[in-house]
Amino acid sequence: MQSMAFYLLLLLSLTSTTTSATTIGVTYSTPASISGSALLSPDRIAAKVVSMNIPAVRLLDSNPAMIRAFAYTNVSLFLSVPNPLVPLLASNRSLAMRWVYRHVLPFHPRTKISIISVGNDAISYSPDVSPFLLRAMQNIHLSLADLRIYKVSVSTTFSFFNIVPTAFPPSSAQFQNPNGDVIIRPILQFLERTNSSFLINLFPYNMYRSSFSIPIGFALFEEFPFNFRDDLTTGVRYRNLFDMMVDAVISSMAVMGHENLPVIVAETGWPSSGIDASEVDATLLYSEMYLKGLLNHLRSGTGTPLRKEGVSEVYIFELVEKEAKQGIRNWGILHHNMTDKYSFEFSDGGETRRFVEVLLGFSVEVVMVLYLLM
Ligand SMILES: *[C@@H]1O[C@H](CO)[C@@H](O)[C@H](O)[C@H]1NC(C)=O
Ligand SMILES: *[C@@H]1O[C@H](CO)[C@@H](O)[C@H](O)[C@H]1NC(C)=O
Ligand SMILES: *[C@@H]1O[C@H](CO)[C@@H](O)[C@H](O)[C@H]1NC(C)=O
Ligand SMILES: *[C@@H]1O[C@H](CO)[C@@H](O)[C@H](O)[C@H]1NC(C)=O
């Protein structure tokens, strides 16, 4: 009977981890070139996303036709306000209202809009619009509230490399000053007050490239005996670079007293080709290993050492390759012509089914063993 209780507990823990798994979406931006525009019409893109069973999309340019195309699909959308608009929306409430009138009001709630990012990596954008971020976020938030739209949260997206100077050990990471105190701290307060999330672009690829001491397997979720890093302050062992970077963000928020804010990884990925010969690790094999490893890790529901439930959402950069040519970084999970680039299934429908089958098989076995023992 003791073992029965043990197996029940095991079963319970296995099932509960699957329910807490992260939502995995993709990013999409309209290509600059107009060739193939018919192929990439908003309706085609939305239909492709639905057919791939992708539950969430981050639109990097929030084209209203694209927002409309996702009506009645159950796909949740993450919208973005472009950086050049940030100072305008900060200084003029009626312009913020206008943005909401154009991008949210006509579509909500038929299109599920979950969050609006005001700006994307505004700190590195030139001219620097980051001093206007908070006011612009407040104006969008107030405009939504004026229209009684409470389910759409407002935030902004930072880039890991521009705000967290050192990621190891994660427990001693801090936001870089002066931006930490001047820009990020008041934004964290706003996010806490409005139940929003902290959005971060996070690329282990860039950190791997900038540090000779990181083994490739640690960046690619490979489980080798020596692929780990111990954080001696917390006594925590890291088995992949992604978790380490996420925990560096969580520690940095904790320093400012906001360790419980939900974290959304607004962009991540690994390029399958590089700009030049120096990018030897930008290969199709490695990008496939990164994506597969990331999906398996997120679906395992184990979270990170400092955040048991894990990040709430992750967006893979990006759905469709921008151009079919050499000498650029290609990140798409689909080719330029919308055909599959990788052999693995992006959708987790199949995985879940297989997992349930394994679980069922497992419990049948437990019952048989118990029966034999009695
Ligand atoms: C959307 O979700 C609702 C509730 O979960 C479901 O009833 C409906 O069939 C879904 N619609 C589509 C198009 O998947
Ligand atoms: C704010 O924007 C509105 C709408 O575009 C415009 O009419 C108004 O002049 C602007 N106000 C200021 C102070 O720029
Ligand atoms: C934030 O969420 C909490 C708990 O879900 C809820 O009680 C509170 O009303 C929410 N606040 C806002 C401003 O939405
Ligand atoms: C789509 O593009 C890829 C990569 O450029 C190419 O290998 C493939 O043959 C193309 N497929 C079709 C059907 O055009």
Keywords:
signal; two-stranded antiparallel sheet; globular; TIM Barrel; eight-stranded parallel beta barrel; hydrolase; alpha/beta; glucan endo-1,3-beta-D-glucosidase; single chain; binds 2-acetamido-2-deoxy-beta-D-glucopyranose; Glyco_hydro_17
Task: Describe the model.
The model is unreliable at 4-19, 350-362 and 364-374 (pLDDT under 50). The protein has one domain: Glycosidases (TIM Barrel, Alpha-Beta Barrel). Helix 1 packs antiparallel against helix 13 (349-373). It has 13 helices and 10 strands. The protein is of the alpha/beta class and 374 residues long. It is globular and about 55 Å long. The strands form 2 sheets. An 8-stranded parallel barrel has the order 1-2-3-4-5-6-9-10. Bound molecules: 2-acetamido-2-deoxy-beta-D-glucopyranose (NAG) (4 copies). One 2-acetamido-2-deoxy-beta-D-glucopyranose (NAG) is lined by residues 194-195.
Instruction: Report the C-alpha radius of gyration, rounded.
Output: 22 Å
How many domains? The number is 1
CATH homologous superfamily heading: Glycosidases
| CATH T-level fold name | TIM Barrel
